[in-house]
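Last lecture ended with a question: if I hand you only a sequence, what can you say about the shape of the protein? Today we answer it with a concrete record. The protein is Ribonuclease. Below, first the input exactly as provided, then the predicted structure, then a couple of comments.
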Amino acid sequence: MAVAEPTLEIEHALLLAGARTVIGCDEVGRGALAGPVAVGVAVIDAGIAAIPAGLRDSKLLSEPRREALEPLAKAWVLHSAVGLASAREVDELGIIACLGLAGKRALTALHEAGVDITGSVVLLDGNDDWLNKALSTPLNVVTRVKADRDCGSVAAASVIAKVHRDRLMIDAHAETPGYGWAGNKGYGSAAHMSAIAELGAHDLHRKSWLKISA
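The predicted structure:
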């Protein structure tokens, strides 16, 4: 079965409706047991060029393909950023609040780069607007299920965020190799769970989640 290719159909419709720019937005690491949750954002406007060949939702790409496409995605969009919320913050605030917190940090980085956030539409993957729940000033957010698969800007945000977070986990593995983070990226593989049982929890673990998983 052929893999669906993302288009800019939704983004173009939003731009024609008056948005100055469209900010594709996606999260990665939501279900991991260790490491931060990350939210990627990628900005396009009406002058954007064709989607880079092979760009897909990060979940549909191998790690080498993501690494190869990440610089292309960054060069394609006007601006991009990744916001993070730490494992400790997930324990303290809960995952939904931390999605919003990471998204707020990513949008702040865009604002500091000169992006007109209030004049943009945020195209958010999924059906829950967790982003506005974290913002004091509501933004124009459009949610869409499978936007990471179907929408070019969100696919770019997905790849940029995934590669950023994966690199953090690979760096953490170099410092603490016992948990296998370079391979599992903090997700609950059998080997990862065995390592936790043997070594105990690390500061990068979401300790409240380990209690649920026990």
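Comments.
1. Strands lie at 21-28, 37-44, 79-85, 120-125, 140-144.
2. The longest strand covers residues 21-28.
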